[in-house]
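Write out the bound-state structure for adenosine-5'-diphosphate.
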Amino acid sequence: MKMIPEAVVTNIKGQVSADNDELIDGFHLVIQALQLNDIHTIYGVPGIPITDLARQAQAQGIRVISFRHEQHAGNAAAIAGFLNAKPGVCLTVSAPGFLNGLTALANATTNCFPMILISGSSEREVVDLAQGDYEEMDQLAIAKPLCKSAFRILHIEDVGVGIARALRAALSGRPGGVYLDLPGKLLIQTMDKEAARKSLIKVVDPAPKQIPDHTALARAIHLLQSAQRPLIVLGKGAAYARCDEEIKRLIETTGIPYLPMSMAKGILPDDHPQSAQAARSYVLPEADVVLLIGARLNWLLSHGKGKTWGGSSLKEWGGQRFIQIDIAATEMDSNVAIEAPLVGDIESCVKGLLAHIDTNWPTPPTAWLNAVQEKKNKNIQKMADTLANNPTPMTFHSALRVVRDIVKENPQIILVNEGANALDFTRSIVNMYQPRKRLDVGTWGVMGIGMGFSVAAAIETGEQVIAIEGDSAFGFSGMEVETICRYQLPICVIVLNNNGVYRGTDVNAGGGSDVAPTVFVKDARYEKLMEAFGGVGAYVKTPEELMQAIQRAVTSKAPTLINAIIDEAAGTESGRIANLNPTANLKT
Ligand code: ADP
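---
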């Protein structure tokens, strides 16, 4: 290792760089290591000490998508990881930029999305003695508890190993976020070019198949066969696993009703006859054997206990018996007993089950199927009646009816969704027809993913994106409309604007002149934000106007923001998770 000598410093647009016949510097070697491993896009925010890394990456043919804030670049990398089953990479500056990106890294880890956050960092010697360096922070130590793995590369000779370690950690087993710390000094080190080339590692089979044990498969089959009221729950792990055909075959051959979690919608089209979505609150408590495929029994499934699972047929919770497919053995029994754990990758596990299931597999008892169908019909009719209304002002329902129709006509559209009521209503009203087309707030129910997810979805797939945003949720990442305009992305943002968090009608309980904490500026003109950067803005008050504005966006592919004004009294406190809000509980 050498520090960069005067003689090899070239000055392209002011950046330090060494990539000549004999020597290569850290900037170039990191880029080569990423490219060797098929990383062709980086999301980030440039600044000291990684500005030149971003410039050089672009010069070497990597697509570098610059954001206005690291959290959104991080969210973009995270969802790129989900969409491609390959780590998305986010590049940030030190300390504050790193911390901004860390929220997205932690969120990616929580959601099991593969991602690598690469941050530049200050001088180790100064940081370790707490001598007050520029943006001094022990980033590696801070990142460690918040992600799957964290690594630092101190010597240029270790770049190949460092990138390989990061890729394997992000992808193997349960996918997740990895932090990679690159001190500024590393980037300007140089080494012999040929030796550097040999030091790089092309990672082979980073997410190897994990074949389930045949005893575990037999146990699962035995339990499934004994079911009187079986149910399959598909989670986003099933979407990530990309074995859509096998999952479809399992569901169709067994005839078992299935329930998709929100990001698993579309693995089978939501109008599939076996979908039990419209009967969710009936099938969860009533099912006697539940097969979970890539879905955790966390808060989103009421931990497998309580009222949600305590059906009349079972008298109380605890009556259900679970089969769970997951790559993480430690997931089993995390909330309730898993009688038939199937540890392995979803594709291998589903194929393993299919090997025991042929067309002679008995369909579930008719009484169960009829009961599910009856509930479904009732709820679908109830929803159809609500959606048929055309109130003035618009409501979540009448606005989302339009989105439902557009997505039905254009099933390739990617739907990004965040908010409280905007999230809950969209999830139940807008059907998805293809896998991995619905990207949302995920396991944490986090706000702020909207524009980051939208940008990456457009960049990675080239498809039209529609982002359904609550006006509150949009505020977390709204400035990224400039990013959307800068890269001219086919993204149509729809802000469902009811003037506040949950709704815009709360009053200041103290009677003071400040508005209530949940209330925003009335009739805010969000569409002008998009117009400010050259995109298309639309201000709409009726479903017809909304339909026309979306159609224009989809046809033109122009960056568009539709400010959809809905009844400010529409919306409930905390959407459908009011039970988690202690204040709301006191009020009711
Ligand atoms: P949802 O929120 O949709 O219910 P979760 O994020 O809770 O989904 O669960 C996803 C699960 O899928 C995680 O437990 C994760 O370990 C698992 N998983 C992800 N990819 C795979 C895979 N290829 N094979 C098996 N399990 C996987």
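---
Residues 3-15 have pLDDT under 50 and may be disordered.
The pocket of adenosine-5'-diphosphate is lined by residues 111-112, 174-175, 235-237, 240-241, 261, 263-264, 294-296, 298, 300, 326-328, 331, 345-346, 443 (CB under 6 Å).
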